[in-house]
Specification:
single chain; 107 residues; mainly alpha; Cytochrome Bc1 Complex, Chain D, domain 2; binds heme C
């Protein structure tokens, strides 16, 4: 019985895509993680935290960088020609992350 339970737990962990609310990890997350972190906590000075930011705001910011109406060459280069679907997935991912209180107290 115990073995079955452990096996079942293992299966649940191995299938995060089945979780209802949490979006699955975007394929393109690697393009962003060096600066914004996988969980949306900034990794370099000058990069903003994205965790927990509003979905509509993130979506708009990404489109504005892509079309140049928000003119930041760094972010434009990072986004490159990503599709709306890719940007949407990234926005969903970052808005679903929780802010880490520890990071908030850093200068
Ligand atoms: C080389 C570092 C770097 C990479 C890589 C990078 N970013 Fe950024 N990102 C920045 C910086 C710096 C800013 C602040 C730009 C500004 O002043 O508007 C920013 C701004 C943003 C913002 C706007 C945040 C706000 O509060 O307005 C979003 C959203 C964002 N990045 C998402 C992404 C996503 C998604 C990716 C991957 C496709 C990515 N970034 C890749 C450095 C980076």
């Amino acid at each position: 019985m115990r073995t079955v339970l452990i096996a079942a737990l293992g299966l649940t962990c191995a299938m995060p895509a089945l979780a209802v609310d949490a979006p699955s990890k975007p394929v393109r997350l690697g393009l962003c993680a060096a600066c914004h972190g996988e969980t949306g906590m900034a990794q370099i000075p000058g990069a903003p935290n994205l965790a927990g930011q509003r979905l509509d705001y993130l979506r708009k910011a990404l489109r504005d960088y892509r079309d140049g109406s928000r003119d930041v060459p760094l972010m434009r280069a990072a986004i490159g020609p990503l599709s709306d679907a890719d940007l949407d997935q990234l926005a969903r991912w970052y808005s679903a992350q929780s802010l880490s209180p520890q990071a908030l107290t850093q200068p």
